[in-house]
Structure formats: C-alpha cells, structure tokens
Amino acid sequence: MKDLERILRDAKRIGITGHIRPDGDCVGSNVALYEYLMANYNQDGSKTIDMYLEAVPEAFKFLEGVDKVQYDYPEAESYDVFFALDCGSLDRLGEAQKYAKDAKMVINIDHHISNTGFADKTIILPEASSTCEVLYGLFDVECITTWAAVALYLGIVHDTGVFKHSNTSEKTMCIAGKLISLGAQPSKIIDETFYQKTFTQNQILGRCLMESILVLDGKIIIGSISKKEQEFYQIVPSDLDGIIDQLRVTKGVEVAIFLREDGVQEYKVSMRSNGIVDVSKIAVFFGGGGHIKAAGCSMKGTYYDVINNLTVGIEHQLKKSYEKVNN
Description:
The chain is built from twelve helices and twelve strands. It is of the alpha/beta class. The chain has a six-stranded parallel beta sheet. Strand 1, helix 2 and strand 2 form a beta-alpha-beta unit. It is globular and about 65 Å long.
C-alpha cells in the first residue's frame, strides 16, 4: 500500500476501467476507486482522473460519480497509471485495451483465480468475495467517503449474491458492516439493484425457466435465450441478470448453464456450480475465466455443439468426484 500511495501521489494522469459488460462488482469498484482518488489525491484538481466503462446498467446509475464514466473511448495522452479492475485478462478490457497498452504503468486489482497476470503490478486475492473487498483492504478506512462506501457495498452485494454465495466470509460480513456505518444503506441498495426487476425482466426469466432442460440425469440444467428473443423483448444484457442464479437453485442440480446467443452460432456462456464441479476449469479451456463456482466464456457453434462441448468436461469432473467418494 505504501508503494501504491507513492505512485498515486506522483501520477498526474490516472485512468480507471473494468471488464466488458460491467456487473455490480465492476461498476462498484470503478466508482469507488474514482471517488476515493478524487477525495484523497486530487483535492487541488491538479490530476486528471478518467474512468471508462461500457454501458452501465440503469440500476447502478444512482451512484455518485457514475456520471463521470466515459463511454466513447477518445484518443488520449498516455496515462501515468492505468487501473484495470475486476478483470482477469487484457482482452476483457475491450476498447480500453489501448489505454492499458500505452500507459506507463498498469495496476490490476482483481479476485479471479483465473487472472492471467497481464499488468505491471497485480493485486489478486482469490479468497476475497469481490474486487470491492480487495479495494477496501487497500483503502485507508478513515478516508472512505460515503459514496465510495456505497459503491463498495454494491459490489460486494452483487458478487456474493446478497451474502449467500460461498465466497462470503466472516471478513466479508465485517467489511459490509463497516461500510454500513460509513453510510451505505443495505435495503435500498439490495432491493433496487438486486431484487427489483422490470416486467420485461420477469417475462424473460419466466420464459427461460419454462424452456430450460435437464441433462446428465438431472445434474445439469441449461437455459438459453436466442438473438431473436432478445430483439423481440428489446432487452439489454443486464436484463438477464439473475437467471443463472435461479437455474442454479434447482433441486438436484450440480451445474447451471445459461446461454445467450450473441450472433450466428455465437454464444455467451455463464456457469454456476453447487460445489462438486470447478466451472472455472471449463471456462478457461474455452478461453474464458472466473471462479470455482461461477465462471463464463464465449463459444462458437450450434446450440447443441456448445452444450455437448461443455457437458463433456462437467461429466468428467462429476465422474472423478463420485469415484473418489466410492473409493
């Protein structure tokens, strides 16, 4: 942290970004770092601090500082320090890759076990619930503003599934409690950004659940949405949040898979595991990444090609697990 403080004091131009298709932890960590830097390292306005993200979901736009996000990725003078948050590989930065490649120093702060270590300085804590939890450990607690606390709480809530996922630790709960004392309002953040859904979102969720299928003797559940359906309902990626988690809690299921058709024979794959299967291994094999129990990737092929390729690896892990138990 001392090295980081020195770097920040000396830097005149600082950039911040996160992964493509930003979720709660990505948006929360970006806004929290921006707010923290502005409040503690740029009181005199002598530094340039820019934040870049793809479209921020509507539910997160109540955050103070989110209006400073730049979406157009203009040509810019190289940054002294460029932060890549909640991102495990360079290609996941999307258009912001160009800033990282030109920056004098890239600092990657993350919690994904599949992180490729692409930055000049990397701070990765796989045991942390979220990148927001990692950031909290780097910040001086006495210098965290109310809005930085709100952003950090948002990220932790979304990556822990409101504290119900296995990545929720005693430390996570203690940090959440401290953030509440700093001004984060749990009921507002949780209800309005996690549970509250539009009519369209409920329609899509219902359709995906009704048309989901079980394979491998009910150990895998698969839901999907086609490109045509997305266009019909005029949905954006954030409208699909929560579907994979609802699939996962199906009784008897070990792995849930959700496929979003992005183009002709192109799918975005999300996976969740209930414990036996390490879905990050499956995702990494197909060029993606994530955590043991939550991971994703992009794949090409027909709907059935994608399912067949994914289930082979899952079936292999399940068989090894059952053999180990029986022996």
